[in-house]
């Protein structure tokens, strides 16, 4: 069974946000934000467009709300994300489809393989193999090596 703390909101980031500012804005503490989003410092926010914050408001905020199960590849975890604005009885919205074309996905995979090959000091084809075996998860690819 999910507890109230299992539910999160997806909060957009604004340029210049810091962990302290986000903690105050979302009535939580820095340690919780770091743990929840797999952050090490404020500089970790630079590569993100959003973070996950625990839902405040207790059971009343959660009851009757629509949720989606969201996997965050950056935080390497699955979240139960509340969908704000959805009322009880509304049909849940389907998740948005990826806006990347297959060519763009291939280009990003090649770039990731190049970076991984430099990090692991192997050729690009070997890095691409490990990347595919790990379903494009860089951390898992490095562990497989």
Automatic annotation (TrEMBL):
Domain LysM: 9-53
One Pfam family, short name: LysM
Organism of this sequence: Haematococcus lacustris
Signal peptide coordinates: none
Classification via CDD domains: LysM
The protein's name in its UniProt record: LysM domain-containing protein
């Amino acid at each position: 069974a999910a507890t109230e703390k299992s539910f999160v909101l997806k909060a957009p980031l604004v340029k210049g946000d810091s962990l302290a500012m986000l903690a105050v804005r979302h009535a939580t503490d820095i340690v919780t934000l770091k743990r929840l989003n797999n952050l090490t410092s404020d500089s970790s926010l630079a590569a993100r467009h959003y973070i996950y914050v625990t839902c405040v408001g207790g059971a009343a905020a959660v009851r009757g709300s629509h949720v989606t199960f969201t996997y965050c590849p950056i935080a390497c975890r699955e979240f139960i994300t509340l969908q704000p604005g959805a009322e009880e009885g509304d049909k849940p919205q389907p998740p948005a489809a990826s806006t990347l074309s297959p060519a763009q996905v291939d280009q990003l995979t090649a770039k990731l393989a190049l970076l991984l090959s430099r990090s692991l000091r192997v050729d690009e084809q070997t890095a691409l193999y490990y990347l595919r075996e790990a379903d494009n998860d860089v951390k898992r690819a490095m562990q497989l090596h």
